[in-house]
Amino acid sequence: MQRTPLEDWIVERTGISRRSREALEEYQLRKIMETVQFARRHSRFYQEQLADVSVISWENVQALPFTYPNQIRRDPNDFLCIPQRDIKRIVTLRSSGTEGEEKRIFFSQGDLDATIDFFQYGMSSLTDESDRVLILFPGASCGSIGDLLGKALKRSGVVCFKHGVITNMEETAKCIVENGITCLSGIPIQILQLSRIKTEIFQKNIRKVLLSADYVPEVLIRELTERCGCRVFTHYGMTEMGYGGGVECQALGGYHMREGDLYIEILNPDTGQPVQDGQMGEVTFTTLTRQAMPLIRYRTGDLASFSPVPCRCGTFLKTMNRVYGRLENQMQICGNSFLHFSQLDEWMLPFSELLDYKACMEHENMLGIEVVFMDGGDFQETLNKISKTIQEKIQRQYGCRMQIRFTRKTNQQENCFNSMEKRKFCR
Ligand SMILES: [Zn+2]
Fold this sequence. Notes:
- The protein is an alpha/beta fold.
- It has two domains: 327 residues, Rossmann fold (3-Layer(aba) Sandwich), CATH 3.40.50; 85 residues, 2-Layer Sandwich (GMP Synthetase, Chain A, domain 3).
- The chain is built from 14 helices and 19 strands.
- The protein has an eight-stranded mixed sheet with strand order 4-3-5-6-7-8-9-13, sandwiched between helices. A four-stranded antiparallel sheet has the order 10-11-12-14. A three-stranded mixed sheet has the order 17-18-19.
- The longest helix is centred in the first third of the chain and has 22 residues.
- It is globular.
- It starts with a helix and ends in a 13-residue tail after the last helix.
- The mean pLDDT is 92.
- Bound molecules: zinc ion.
- The site of zinc ion has 7 residues, from loops.
């Protein structure tokens, strides 16, 4: 098994002389000190937030104040560390439903180049020159995720086509056949939908997939692996990280992180203290090399854990287990228990006639679920089975009874093939 290609990249990029955690952590501490100084000198936000801190040890790092998404929303310009003319891309992130709440993330050319580099090395654990990749992310504008991924693959000599998110299954299937596509890179639920609607084409052509832009349910990975015979790699990242955060190696046991550019902590969301490896907590990161908009101890709201065992690929880099979803993506049920959206995925997505769903708590004991099935079927029996499954699971795990009210939607109504929105409970 090939060791993660990220290791060579990180060793070269950081200039560390030994392949060891100690050497890497020494580098990371030095870069955190530099980042604190740089951010304090150039950004209005950190000038104030870090006015009285000094960092000379890891204990100091653990005492640094956190940065929260709301603080970026309040005034993104306060985070800016370079002159306006040096900004090469601005990404605006809107939280759905809330008006006037926008997060803007700024990038310099150097920031974008670092991401292309990461994608290039990250992708080389799954692709080689014999592959033809279809990119199913937005890629039209310069500096978009699809554009950067395309540039990275081109550098490695891998043929790729920028398709954009799937809006029409027929067109995408045609594109796969006509271009001899062997590898797909896209949004998890869209790739699952494609594999269910265009099973034959998928099974015949697609050997590998890279899933990103949302958490990836385990059931989805199992289905693509077992039913479609694909090798399924997942990537974790967010715009604030500079898109790229971590990617799986050939061991397919969790992500290796971009540790030369990011210092990652996993913290108890309530106390802000680090949790032990193997325990789930909130992913929190500090950028080490970012120019336009460095972020210090940024609370992502994503849930994950570090693996307590070394990766089978033999790297000294850490392994982060696959992200479980968003901290906020849960609903209180049965008194004081919480139902996480990821649990619903594991219960519902195994029904292969289902394409997508939305869920809301309508009131205390009533779960409202909108379902989208494949075209051309009644599926009442499936609906009964789904209902029974959820009720049994909730009864067994939480000890209470839950009513479920289903609403049927069609593809067109839901526009479910045209969404970059993360899957979550509606409020
Ligand atoms: Zn590995």
